[in-house]
Amino acid sequence: MFKPADLFDLSQTEHAAIFDGCEFAWQALEKISAYIAATLRPGLHNHCEGVAYVGEKVFIGEGTLVEAGAMIKGPAIIGRNCHIRHNAYLRENVILGDGCVVGNSSELKDSLLFNKAGAPHFNYIGDSILGHKVHLGAGVVLSNIKSLAGNVTVEREGKPFDTGLRKFGALLGDGAEVGCNSVLNPGSIIGRGAVIYPGVNWRGILPANMIVKNRADQEVVMRRPRET
Length: 228
Known about the structure:
The protein has two helices and 28 strands.
């Protein structure tokens, strides 16, 4: 599950070259900045509703809508027919494919989204890659840095494997779905078509087409009138 082709349909991004020479998919993360610097040709072909801030080092494709209050700091490359909603915050080194959605209070940095990926409500995406048609529910956080010192590791053949990255959020394979208010801890790798239920605190590797359920105990009691 570590190779780019294990997780992503590389035909669903115009930026597949970023994975050239990558044995492990997470190696593309440290190439995003240089890739943007080499390929970016600033230009705004979008439509704005209201006033948004767009930095000088930004390309936005045709048919994309940027709503009032959005801040696209850049450097950034944004594809066609995307929807950047009110108060979205795109920081440094962000690449969006075609048909992506970034919603209210969602923050992105050093990340790549394949075509039709969505982070529509209150999401944090740091140092991560979202595959084709990945969807994040409201409040999903892709945590990108360990609380303790050291690089992010992933489990490989039953042992911790150093990714070489101090900051590494998550790799979400094509079609993965993450439910509301879930947290993916640093170095999470989610396979194609996998589903994480709302409210899950996830760490590690989830194979393709698997489901993670959070079965918290709940108590149901009779409602009684309060004494006056």
